[in-house]
Amino acid sequence: MRRWTDVWLNAGIATMAWTGRPYGAIEEGAIAVADGVIVWIGPRNELPNIDGAQVHDAGGGWITPGLIDCHTHLVFAGDRCDEFERRLRGESYEEIARSGGGIRSTVAATRAASEAELYAASLKRLSTLAGTGVTTIEIKSGYGLDLKSEIKMLRVARRLSADLGVTIRTTFLGAHALPPEYEGRRNEYVELVAGPMLERVATEELADAVDVFAETIAFTPGETAQVFEAAHRVGLPVKLHADQLSDQGGAALAARYGALSADHLEHANEAGVMAMADSGTVATLLPAASYFLREAQLPPVDLLRRHGVPIAIATDCNPGSSPALSMPLMLNMACTIFRLTPEEALAGVTRNAALALGLSDRGTLEVGKFADLAIWDVRRPAELAYWMGNLPLCGVVKAGVARETAA
Ligand code: NIG
Ligand code: FE
């Protein structure tokens, strides 16, 4: 038997594995780790001899899988607080976008920022988010919209992983908005994204997936398909910002290309949801964007449940529609706004978020998975979705190593 290096004791464990019990819970559990991986997990009173292992007392709370934020635009320069104020005075998100603000204003700031400036601003946000129990995060490009600036964003995202003990998965989102210099030349921009940009991103191995914003203010279903075809040619899986502001048939389109996830989905229709169930596409719901834009239309949670589509929850951290930097707050919003149960919400930031990133080595606490743990000072797991603005986090473990936390 491999030598156990560390054991965590004195906690309930929400394994989030399919065990038939709510939260896959073990009321008084223990987790043993070797080489960063879980080698034993079960009730404490069944724990074999642990001689030689370092024992960690989890303090009587609950241990969950390290949280996974599977949809963010965390690398950007500047902020859009002025647009927040404009919206409070009555302008809509779409009106601001059409008047040259919105994504384009962040594009201008991001292009102007040096790589070092972009890194510093992003590192601050990542460390805040990581300090809320996050051990894996996805970061998209999409505020560069030219070859040089998209590459700059993806490089910054890749470099960010080094210091903070967070795994970063990157997604190329060149088709986020039409850059101003391509006004009236949409085809040329889509060809640039699907051609030279994507090739460079793939050659330099800067992205793990490819995303498109399919929307009236962004790209059409046909343009989306063109980018997806190109992504498949270079061997990258796809994701889609689908049906956020209007029904574009985005859910079905994502499913047709075997997308890892279709995200937002407020306006998705039932045929699209059924297609997602068939293709195994995860529905990533973004409650903070819905909240921040005061979107009246809620995503079709009942349809997703009825057709068995896995639901993930993420921050969508970005300067325009979701300046959110707390995962526990997302749990609360997923329950309060989208009416998920606390268990569904927690599955959304663990097991199903891993699926949305195509990662089978994390997201649940089981033998063979990474020992990415979040340790919470709560009496029962539902409390994680209950508090608002309180962070009952008391420790984070990344691949078996205790990480410094802000908590
Ligand atoms: O996921 N929907 C498109 N992209 C972002 C918003 C980006 C922005 O406004 O800067 C989103 O909500
Ligand atoms: Fe987004």
Overview of the molecule:
It contains 14 helices and 16 strands. It has helices at residues 81-88, 93-98, 103-112, 115-130, 147-164, 186-203, 221-233, 250-256, 270-279, 287-292, 301-306, 327-336, 342-348, 351-356, and strands spanning 6-14, 25-34, 37-43, 54-57, 62-65, 67-69, 134-140, 167-175, 209-213, 238-242, 261-264, 282-285, 311-313, 373-376, 393-398, 401-403. Strands 1, 2, 3, 4, 5, 14, 15 and 16 form an 8-stranded mixed beta sheet that branches. Strands 6-7-8-9-10-11-12-13 form an 8-stranded parallel beta sheet. The chain is globular. The model has no long low-confidence stretch (mean pLDDT 96). Bound molecules: N-(iminomethyl)-L-glutamic acid and fe (iii) ion (FE). N-(iminomethyl)-L-glutamic acid (NIG) binds at residues 73, 102-103, 106, 213, 241, 244, 289, 316, 318-322. N-(iminomethyl)-L-glutamic acid binds next to α3.
